[in-house]
Structure prediction request, 661 residues.
Amino acid sequence: MARTLSMKDAINEAIDQEMARDKTVIMMGEDIVGGAGAAGEDDAWGGVLGVSKGLYHKHPKQMIDTPLSESAYVGAAIGAATCGLRPIAELMFIDFMGVCLDQIYNQAAKFRYMFGGKAETPVVIRAMCGAGFRAAAQHSQMLTPIFTHIPGLKVVCPSNAYDTKGLLIQAIRDNDPVIFLEHKNLYASECDVPEEPYAIPFGEANIAREGSDVTIVAYGLMVPNSLAAAETLKKEGIDCEVIDLRTLSPIDMDTVIESVEETGRLVCVDEANPRCSIATDVSATVARDAFKALKAPIEMVTAPHTPVPFSPSLEDLYIPSPDRIAEAVRKTMGA
Amino acid sequence: MSNPFPLEKDGLLDAYRRMKTIREFEERLHVDFGRGDIPGFVHLYAGEEAAGVGIMMHLQDHDRIASTHRGHGHCIAKGVDVKAMMAEIYGKATGSCAGKGGSMHIADLSKGMMGANGILGAGAPLVCGAALAAQKLGHDGVGITFFGDGASNQGTVLESMNLAAIWNLPAIFVVENNGYAESTSVDYAVASDSYVDRATGFGMPGITVDGTDFFAVYEAAGEVIKRAREGAGPTLLECKMIRFFGHFEGDAQTYRAPGENEDNRKNRDCLKIFRAKVTEAGVLTDAELDAIDAEVLALIDEAVKEAKAAPLPGPAELTTDVYVAY
Prediction:
């Protein structure tokens, strides 16, 4: 039965249901329970934004608070994944990858290939991503391109609560390491979410809005921003198709190509910095595989090639806005 | 004559066979690499055999180890197939990792060998995970990470020691102190005088043993592994040992004192020390050990011969065993 749920609660429910189904699913991270060893309440925080609140009381043996040692506990999650557990490591903010990246990209990502197919590493690394939270340069980044570049990792960045639940369940059941990125500015966004567990396969984009004039490709927070742009453009008589990639590795280029072959126009929207980004990747692939279908140059709407600024006036300029997306669409229409 | 050793005759022969296999494997690689038969680069464990074997004699397949760039000895001691290892080092399809790993990444999870590792100190968090899995799955397996005096300065190792201590994990941190981080002396690079002090700093026991003495290692390892299995938590075990070769093959070793290698070979060879002890005690004879020497030599000959004759991985293997997005 469907009812309305926020993305934050959808994450909690997905983990809860998977932990109940499979006792080898554990989660570890900093303050995911909260108050460990302290005199006050147990389950004091449930994560810095309360995403995992309540899970400790339901699954006390599966929820483990860690010291502030990302290398050690992310590595431990990876090691445990090769030894019969299905751990979720919460990295809090993806910006912290810098202190534990070796364990992710040199260890987890490579085991299966480097050991000749004899290792499975079913680990999920969950983290908040994205700007708009006034969290400044080291707590706001969209680092999807870095992980997408690395063979052996799967990369997920959902745009709504429904997809989040299904993709997180798939991530937990997947036998490869998955980087699961949750846009913190979408945590409160709500939509209908079925109560029963369900998995959404990786590598299947969702057509969030059908349209015939222009294809907009986006993921994460850029999906609602693109949909908002599409509503504005509708009033101008421009009919946009919005494709939500949902997973960046694997990536569903077939759906993108099919759409561009219908519309003949492409706008790639990416909250990441512009160089070597998802936007450039999708653009290059479309330019190669659907060049003849293009009626106008491909447009890209991305963050500037700068760190994320703190001041709200600057941060609002940093994030690709519905206005900038709409402007790019108009450009492809020759307006 | 009575047996003064903690192992019966069969156990002693097994230990000697493992050590001798490692020695012969590495000595052969030294020669074959020098001749240009082997791609890439190799780091040899010769001289350090007593440490790896002294520890691994206590382990079973459900005990997990994470090794280092100098991992051949750990693999052999843990029971990884020697012929498959040789084929892997030659980059062949029949190798332990189908030719996709090479010398620095030999792994066999079915034997509890979580992989040699090209990243210094990277195994420490991984064995914390193995130890946590043992705890959660309710078996008595332990996780042992090996690292050198060089990698002992990596943050991953220190973070992992803290994690193992607070979670009371059945994890063992083995410092293989051969005196050199690549070319840099331990006296220069390690701030504390004693690894035991470092262990104390993390609230865990630390033990230092003479890593050239198989029996000293065997005895100490037995204690710390028993301690871990019984739920008493992690330990640091420092084995002071000798690296017979350079950091990598081709290392001219100009950082060593004159005569250092010769002196090590003559006076601190763990195989010679083992042989002297067991023969002088009258528990094993030179003839029995010589017979093992001959068998090991034949095995290595065969392993090299088979590795050389084995097929290279086919082109299709380039894109298997990984999700390929394009």
Q: What stands out?
A: The CA atoms of residues 59 and 78 of chain B lie 8 Å apart. The longest strand of chain B covers residues 171-177.
